[in-house]
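Holo prediction. Input below; ligand is S-adenosyl-L-homocysteine.
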Amino acid sequence: MSRALEAGELVLLTDRKGRRYLLTLVEGGEFHTHAGSVAHDGLIGGPEGTQVRTTRNAELTVWRPTLRDYVLKMPRGAQVVYPKDSAAILMHADVFPGARVLESGVGSGALSLSLLRAGAVVVGYEVREDFAQQAVGNVTGFLGAKAVDRFQVEIRDCYQGIDAEGLDRIVLDLPEPWRVVPHAAASLRPGGILVAYTPSIIQAVQLREACDSGPWAFASTMEVLHRGWHIKGDAVRPEHRMVGHTGFVTAARRLADEEMNLEARLRPR
Ligand code: SAH
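Structure of the complex:
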């Protein structure tokens, strides 16, 4: 269903060269670039995908930003998890509507946005107050104030423990995820999933070693290589440039406690 753009909405303006500008529509407002200006009133009331001309005759197209557009443009303190990795994390962590998820660290809230948009109820542990605030601001900016009802950020150190039981999922993006593994085992329900994103393979290895000595199954580590293709007439080839490295995604699934295992249950007491 097509819905007209309204004042107060966040929009993305794109030009022919692929430049992108994020702004909020305001009645009577004007958007300025070096390529001229556009009146917001000429966009309000119209559909997305509308093309307009600036005062200097440059063409701009207006869109509601996708989550990907927003994450790449929003203010950030900490480095964000890139969209290709957030997508993989959502699938590996099997995030579902209503899932109880602990996320740490929260950083700029890029990954939080993906988790919340997939319907999760997220508790975030973040050591830095300024990042926590920025994350809440970024979440509100894209998903609105209502989404913040499902996003509770606490200023605390995840290495010190997790104050929850029966969690469905734990998603980590912090420097020493192996230090969280014992806490994760205590607070995830059987069948729950732990996922950690780490820029370095050394971190992934250390995490895997920590999982080896706990109630974990299906431990796996992967990375996402995203290579775009240039397709124009007869020129069909991979893009010349690609992001060579971002990080690794490690996942593991929590087993039931030993006493719940079939073998242990059948063992004579
Ligand atoms: N995933 C985030 C980025 C996280 S950056 C995003 O997509 O935007 C890593 C974050 O972990 C930083 O904000 C850092 O302050 C936080 N952090 C580091 N150690 C931590 C700890 N022990 N407990 C909680 N947060 C921690």
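The pocket of S-adenosyl-L-homocysteine is lined by residues 78-81, 104-105, 107-111, 125-128, 131, 157-159, 173-175 (CB under 6 Å). That is the main takeaway for now.
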